[in-house]
Amino acid sequence: MKLRFSLGLSIFLLSAPAAFAQSAPDAVDVDPTHHQVFLENDHVRVFQVLAAPGARSPMHSHHPLVFVSLGRARIRLTAPDGSNTIFDTHPAQVLWFENVVHSWEMLSGQAQIVAVEIKAARKGSAPAAVARAANDPVTVDPAHHHVIFENAHARVFEVLASPGEKSPMHAHSPFVLVSMDRARLRLALPDGSSAILDLHPGQALWLQDAAHSWELLSGQLRVIGVEVKAAAR
Q1: Could you read off the pLDDT of 3-47 as tens digits, one per residue?
Q2: Do 226 and 147 fall into the same domain?
Q3: What's phi and psi for 18, nearest 5 deg?
Q4: Contacting residues for 118 by C-beta, under 8 A, at least 6 apart
Q5: pLDDT by residue (tens digit) across 150-200?
Q6: CA 86: distance to chain centroid?
Q7: End-of-domain residue from the set 123, 146, 172
Q8: Could you read off the pLDDT of 53-68 as tens digits, one per residue?
Q9: In what order do the strands lie in the sheet with 211-219?
């Protein structure tokens, strides 16, 4: 599965005026049934969206976020001016949303979305440049770690691996791990200890300054990592 990034979804989705976005109710506040927060700290708020055909969500806004789709669905989106468009989601779809305001109705499929809000991006100013470790995973293991998107607030990378594959010791900047599939890994830590990590679809973890090597023991490793530049020390 190849993760896909798109900036060109539509002007309708990505270009709502900032002032209007600030005045519209937050998605989690106005529709907690469909927008469920399951991870939050000083740097991110992560919520999932689960919806079946016929489900609806009232008009709401989103803070800047990285959108990751795990399911396949067709959704009718309605803008504040009453115009609408059809939005198709598919597994491994990755999007950057900013100043988004809409309501929606599920038309078909099953929506399963993990959204990673970047709190520093709400302020509009970019954080200082990130100084990454010499053993950054994208540098030391580009065969498994591929950057698919980067802006002033986040670097988004994918990790793909099959059983038996390994990755050498590397150090991550703070990031949210979103698992797309089911996998079991053996992690080796810098002090020589080891640990087993089990991943499942839709799982999200905050990893702060993680350093490890890994071996995939079973399953298929399909992960998207959302590095938060403002969290890097």
Answers
A1: 455 544 433 454 455 555 557 899 999 999 999 999 999 999 999
A2: yes
A3: -60, -40
A4: 43, 44, 63, 64, 65, 66, 153, 154, 226, 228, 230
A5: 999 999 999 999 999 999 999 999 999 999 999 999 999 999 999 999 999
A6: 22
A7: 123
A8: 999 999 999 999 999 9
A9: 166-171, 211-219, 183-188, 194-199
Range of the domain at 59: 4-123
Look up the CATH number of the domain holding residue 35: 2.60.120.10
- Together in a domain, 65 and 154: no
Residue 66 CA to residue 226 CA, distance in Å, equals: 8
What's the structural domain count of the chain? 2
Q: Is 172 in the same domain as 110?
A: no
User: Do 152 and 224 fall into the same domain?
Assistant: yes
For 122, the token pair is 């709400």
Question: Is residue 132 a part of any domain in this protein?
Answer: no
Q: Which two tokens stand for residue 40?
A: 């939050």
Q: Who contacts 99 (Cβ-Cβ below 8 Å, separation ≥6)?
A: 14, 15, 16, 17, 18, 20, 21, 61, 64
In one-letter notation, the amino acid at residue 29 is D
Q: What pLDDT, on a 0 to 100 scale, did the predictor assign at position 23? A: 74
Whether the pLDDT of residue 1 is over 50: the answer is no
Under 8 Å CB-to-CB from 142, ≥6 apart: which residues? none
pTM for the whole thing?
0.90
Q: Is-contact 99 79, C-beta < 8 A? A: no
